[in-house]
Amino acid sequence: MSAFKKRKTEHGSTKEAVLAPSTKSSRPKTGKVATPTNKKRAHAQVEIASEDSEEEEEDDEDEEFTFADLGVTESLCDACTSLGFKMPTPIQRESIPIALEGKDIIGLAETGSGKTAAFALPILQALLDKPQPMFGLVLAPTRELAYQISQQFEALGSLINVRCSVIVGGMDMVPQAISLAKKPHIVVATPGRLLDHLENTKGFSLRHLKYLVLDEADRLLDLDFGPILDKILQVLPRERRTMLFSATMNTKLNNLTRAALQQPVRVSVSDSNYQTVKNLMQRYVFIPQKFKDIYLVYLLNKFAGRMCIVFTRTIHEAARIAYLLRALGLSAIPLHGKLSQSARLGVLNKFKAGGKDILVSTDIAARGLDIPSVDLVLNFDLPSDSKTYVHRVGRTARAGKSGFAINIVTQYDIEVFQRIEHALGKKLEEYPTERDEVMVFGPRVNEAQRVAITELKNENDRQNGGGRKGAGGGGIGGGRGKKGGSRRDGMDQDEG
Length: 496
Prior knowledge:
By secondary structure, the protein is α/β, with parallel strands linked by helices. The protein has helices at 74-82, 90-100, 115-129, 143-156, 173-181, 191-200, 217-222, 226-235, 252-260, 292-302, 315-327, 341-352, 386-393, 414-424, 435-439, 442-464, 485-491, and strands at 45-48, 105-108, 136-139, 164-167, 186-189, 211-214, 241-246, 265-268, 280-286, 308-311, 332-335, 358-361, 376-379, 403-409, 429-430. The longest helix is centred in the last third of the chain and has 23 residues, at 442-464. Residues 96-267 form the Helicase ATP-binding domain. Residues 65-93 form the DEAD-box RNA helicase Q domain.
C-alpha cells in the first residue's frame, strides 16, 4: 500500500491591471527581482533548438537587471515602471535580448512568469523603430487570454500610442472588420476567427506582417487548432520574426515549430514539464466525499476577505457552488462556458475590480488569465491531468507575490492526486483542520444546499422556457458562407 493510501480517512485528523501598480514613481535602480526566488537568479538554459548538444550555463551571483540593461528603450522602460514592472522576470531577462536581436524564440516558462511582456516589449520596440500597420499578430487559444494580451500591449505601448484589435469568436464580425480596416499595429486573435476574416473580410491582409507570436502553443494544439494554424501560416510572409511560448513542451509541438520558426533559440526557465513557482504554498485536505461542501465553506471562512478562485470540473457544479455560497452570504460569482462572451468579460472585470471575492470557475479560468491579487486557489474538484493542475494553481503567486493553493481530496481522488504529486516531483503537505471547527458549519451548509438546488432548478426552467442561450455571439457567427464556420466560432470558447 502506498504512503498516501495509509493516510487516515477520518476527516478530522488532519486553510491588467496587468500587474499591481508600484508604490514608487521612479524606476528603481536596485531591488529584489520579482521571481520565484529573490536571492538567487533562476537558472535559465538557452540553446539553439536544432542542436543536439546543450551547453550548461553558470548562474550569475546575485546579479540584478533592469529593463534598460536588457536593451529596452527609455519610453518602454517608463511604461514598465508605471505598471509596476520593477525588475525583469527570468523569462523576460533571457528572451528579450534575443528577440531584440531579431531571432526566433521558443520560450518555455512556468505560468505566471511574465511571458506576455517578454514578447510584447521587443515587438513594441521594433514597432517604435519602424512603425507600420499590421505589424504584429498574436495568436491565443481562448478569447479571455486574447483580451488580456491586448490590454497588456496597450498598457505597455500607451506612451507610443499603439493601436490593437482583438479578433475572437463569439462576437459580431462586422465591428471586427471595421476595426481591422482602421489598420491597427497589433492584432490579437484566436485562430478560428482570424481565418474567417482572412477568407471573408475584403481588404484584410497580413502580407506585410513583421512579428508572429504563438502564445500558449500547447493549448492551441490541444484545442485542435492545428489545421487552422497551417492555413494561417500559408498566407503569412516568410520574412518575419516568430516567437512561440508555452508552459510545457511535447512532441505535438515539434511539427508546429518546424513549420513556423526559423533557426529558433530555445529559452527555458523551467527544469520540469510541471513546474510551479517557489512562492506558492500547496496543501491538501483529505476528507470523505460527503463533507466536501462543508470543508469548502470552512476553508473560505479561514481565508475570509481574500481573493479566491474555486475550481470545479463541470459547469453544473460551478453554478451550484456559486448559489450555495451566495445563500451563505458570501460574495461569489460563477464563470463558465455557458455564459455569453460579454457576460464572461463582465464577470472577470467584476472579480478583478474587487466587486466579488470568490470566483467559482471551470477550467475556463485555469490558463493564461492574469488576475492580480488572487490569494487562494481552491481545487474543489481535482483536475484530471497534471498540466491543468499547474495552470490552475498558477492563477495565484504571480509576478513574485506569494499565494496559497489547497486541494480537496476525497477517497475517490487518491489516484489522480498521486499522479499530480508525481508530476510535481514532491509530496504536498496536509492543511491542518479541526473536526469540531469544521462541523460547526454543517447545519448552515445543509440549508444552503437546498437553496442552491432550488435556484438551479429555477435557472434550468428559465433556460428551457424560451430565449436563446448566450454562449454563441450576435451577428455573423463563423465564416460567411463557409462550411464549418460555426464550429470555428466556438473553438476558442475554453471550457473545463
